[in-house]
Description:
The complex is a heterodimer.
Chain A: E1 11-14, E2 20-25, E3 31-38, H1 52-59, H2 71-78, E4 82-87, E5 92-99, H3 103-115, H4 121-140, H5 153-156, H6 160-163, H7 170-175, H8 178-188, E6 194-200, H9 204-215, E7 237-244, E8 251-257, H10 265-279, H11 285-293, E9 299-304, E10 317-323, H12 330-347, H13 351-370, H14 372-386, H15 391-400, H16 404-416, E11 419-426
Parallel strand pairs in A: 2-6, 7-11
Antiparallel strand pairs in A: 1-2, 3-5, 3-6, 4-5, 8-10, 8-11, 9-10
Helix pairs in contact in A: 1-4, 3-9, 10-16, 11-12, 12-16, 13-15
Chain B: H1 11-14, E1 38-42, E2 48-53, E3 59-67, H2 75-85, H3 95-104, E4 108-113, E5 117-125, H4 129-141, H5 147-164, H6 168-181, H7 193-197, H8 201-211, E6 218-223, H9 227-238, E7 262-265, E8 271-279, H10 288-300, H11 305-313, E9 317-327, E10 330-340, H12 344-360, H13 365-382, H14 386-398, H15 403-407, H16 409-414, H17 418-428, E11 435-440, H18 442-451
Parallel strand pairs in B: 2-6, 7-11
Antiparallel strand pairs in B: 1-2, 3-5, 3-6, 4-5, 8-10, 8-11, 9-10
Amino acid sequence: MPVELPTVELHRATLPNGLRVLIAPDPATPVVAVAVHVDVGFRSEPEGRTGFAHLFEHLMFQGSESLEKLAHFRHVQGSGGIFNGSTHQDYTDYFEVLPAAALERALFLEADRLRAPKLTEENLRNQVDVVKEEIRLNVLNRPYGGFPWILLPPVLYDTFPNAHNGYGDFSELEQATLDDAAAFFDTYYAPGNAQITVAGYLDVDETMKLVEKHFGDIPARPTPVRPSFFEPVPGKERRQSVTDAHAPLPALAIGYRLPDPGADLDSYLGHALLASVLGDGEAARLQRRLVHGDGLVTDVSSGAGLMGSLDARDPDTFTITAVHPGSVEPDRVVAAVDEELDKLAAAGPSAEELARQVARWSAALYQETDREVYRMLGLGARELLYGRAELAVELPHRLAAVTPEQVAAAAATLRSSGRGVLLVEPKGEGA
Amino acid sequence: MTATVPTHRSAEEIGRTEAGPRPLPALGATREVPLPDVVDHVLPNGLRVLAARRASVPMVEMRLRVPYATQAPEHTAIAEVLSSTLLAGTSTKDRVAIDDELAAVGADLGVSVDPERLVVTGSGLASGLTTVLDVLADVLTAPTFADDEVARERARLIERLAVALAQPRTIAREALQRKRFGDHPITREMPRPDDVTLVTAEQVRALHADATVPRGAILTLVGDIDPDAAIAEVERALAGWAGAHAAYELAPPPPITPSDLELVHRPGSVQSQLRLSAPALTRHDDGYSALQLANLVFGGYFSSRWMENVREDKGYTYGAHSGTEIVPGGAVLGVDTDVASDVTAAALLETRYELARMVAVPPTAAELESARAYAIGSLAISLDSQGGLAGTLAGLAADGLDIDWVRERPAQLSAVTVDEVAEAALRFFTPTAFTGVVVGDADVIGPRVRALGGIS
C-alpha cells in the first residue's frame, strides 16, 4: 500500500559566516524544536583520543560566554523545554524542544555556545567522570553492553576512524586536555561546518531574522576539509570472539558493508528493505526460520546502519544480530542465515511481502513525523549528511519503488562479499 | 584524515568575545493548541472505549488495558507465557498470517503483562483501523495457544529471563519491590525460569478464558479518525468478546514502612544502584501539584538539586532521577541513581544530604518558578503526538481521571505557592521516611556504606 507523507515546507539559507539554516514550519503544533548539527562525529576524533567527540559534546553543555555552568539546562527547562545532544559516526547534534514562546531564547542558547563555549579544566574533569559513568551504565556493568555498535566495527573495518570505539577508552578519556578541546572546537565547530534546523510553530521570516540576529556575528573560520573514510570492502570473512562477563547466553553479530547512500540511494534502500524482510515482524524470514522453525536463537534482528538507517555517510554497516542458547553452535546460526540469504538472492521476496514491509516502514515514518523533535532531527540529519532534507518526505515513495529484484540483488551482494562475524561468549560455562 | 593541525585559539580565548556576555531574550507569546474532546462509551459487554481525533498524521494509536491481577502464585509465569503467545495463532490464522494482515496496513501489535494488567499496544495507518480491530478481536476471542507454540515460547521466555535477570536494573528493581512491598503480588513482575518450565498450554487457555475479559478493560484510540465511527467499529468488531465477571483488579500493596536500606551483593559489579522509596500522593489528592513541584526541585528533572550535585558538581553518576509511581490505592516516591562502586558511600551521603536539605532549606521562589514552567511546558510537549496523547488518556482512565484533569493542570500548577511546596518537601522528603536498597559489590562498597549507618 503506497502511502504519502504530507509535503513539507522547507526554507533554506546560508549566513555570510557559512552557517546553513533550515526552517520547517508546522502550524498544528504548540512547540518549536531547534537543533545545531555539527559536521563532525566520532569517526573524526584523533588517534589516542577515542571518545573525544562525545566527551566534547558533553563540554558544550557546560557554559558559554553569557551562560554560567548549569545555566543552559536551567534556561531550557525553566522555559518549559527539554534538551539533549548525541554523537554519531559523522555528526553531533544539540537540540531542544520548547513551547513556541521560547523560540528566540532557544536560538540565543544555541548561538552562545557555538560562538564562545566556556571550556574549563574543572568542567573537563567533571565531564570525564560523568562520561565514564555513562559508559559503565551502558557498557561495562550490563550484559551485551556495546553490542554490536562498539564490538562489531573492529571486526569489519581496518582503519582507525571506522574501527575504533566511539565511546572511548577510559585511559584515553582521562588523558584528554583542555587544549585538545580548544583545537577540536576551533577546527570542527566553525559556523561553516554547522547547520541550524528550526521546526514547529513559527513564522518563517521572523525566524530567519532571529537566526541572523543571534548567529550572524559568529566570525567565519576555515571549514575543515571533510575526509573520506572509505576503505575497501573485505574480501573474505573475518571472525573475532569477545568474552562478556555479564551475559548469560552467547550472541553473535554479522556485519556487512552497505552501498553508499549518497552515491547509490536505490541500492542502499534495497539493502534497507532486505533488513526488514529478514528481521521485521513475526512473518520475517529470520524470525520464521531461526526463532520458530529451527529454534536456534532466542531473538534475532537485522538493520541497515550501525546507528540507524540513513544516519551516516559511507561506509556504514548492515547488521544481523542474534542471542542464542549455549547448546547451539554459532556456525549453525550463521549457516541458516546464509541459506535464507541464498533463497532471497535466488527468488527475492514476493511482491506482497515487500509491500507489507514498505507499509510498515511508511507507518513508522509517520510516527516519526508526528513528534516535532524526531521530525526536526530527521530533516536536519538528512540535510547535513546528504544535502536533502526532502529524503524524509520522499522515502515512502522511494521505498515503494524498490523491486523484489533489487532486494534479491542486495541479498546476493551480501553473500558474495566479505563480512565481519563477532561472537560474544559468556564468561561462565555457557547456558 | 587531514594531517594539518591549524593553529588554534586557547580555551580562554574561545570563551570570550569583544562584545562580551549578552542578555537572555524574553519569552514570546504563548501558543495554545486545545486538546481534542474524547468520546467515552461503554459497550454492552462492559468494555470502555475512549476515542479522540488528532489528525496530525494519517495513523491511529491503540492501547488496550485489561486489569490482570495475580490470582495464584503460578499466575505470573502463566500470564507471561500467555502474553508471549496471544498473537501466535487463532482458530483461523497462524502467527504468520496474523502478522501479514497487520503489516499490510502498516500496523503492529504488542502484548505485555505486569502484576496489575495485560496491555495490548498497537498502531497502524488510520485507513487500516478495521483490520487492526478485527485482528484484535480474533486474538482476544479465538486464540488457540497451540501446544507447539506454547512450548517454543516457553523455552524462549526462559532464555530471555536469563538475560533480563542479569541486568543490574532488574536486580535492583526486584530487590526494591521486595524491600518495600514484602511478598505482596505487586512484587511478582517477572516469573522465575523454574516456574515457566512448568507452564502448560492448558493453563494458558484457562487463564485466558478466566481473566482476559472486557468488563473493567479500557480501549483507547487516538488518531486520524472520526471518534463516533471508530467506536461503532469497535462495537462491531468486539461485540463477541465476553466474560462472566469483571477483570481482576490488583489489591493495594501495604504502605511503605521506613527502614534501614538493604545492601544487596552483586559480585563483580562496577557500579552500584541506589533505589530509595517513600510514600507519596496520588493525582486525586489535594497537594499533589505541590508534591509534583517539590519533586522536580529535588530530583525530577535535570536542573534539580540532586542532579546538579551528584552529576554536575561531583561527577558520581550519569543520571539521578526521582519521581512518583502509581500503585493500586496509592502512590510511592522513588529516588534512583547508578554510581561507580568507589563513590557509592559518597553518593549515598550526598543523596541523604539533598533529601534533608529539602526539609531544612525548602525550595525557593526561583526554584519553584523553574519547576512550574517545566511541568507545564513538558506536559504540552508530551501530549503533542498521537502516541503521547493515547498513552496519557489510557493512564488517566485507568486511574479514574479524564482529559479535563490534563486541561486543568496549567491552572492547578500555577496556583501552587512557595509555602505549599515547602510543606510538601517537609512531609515527603524527610530522610527518615525512606526505605530502599543499595545493589553493588558488597566486598568493595560494604565497609564505607555500612559505616554511614542506616544500612544493613
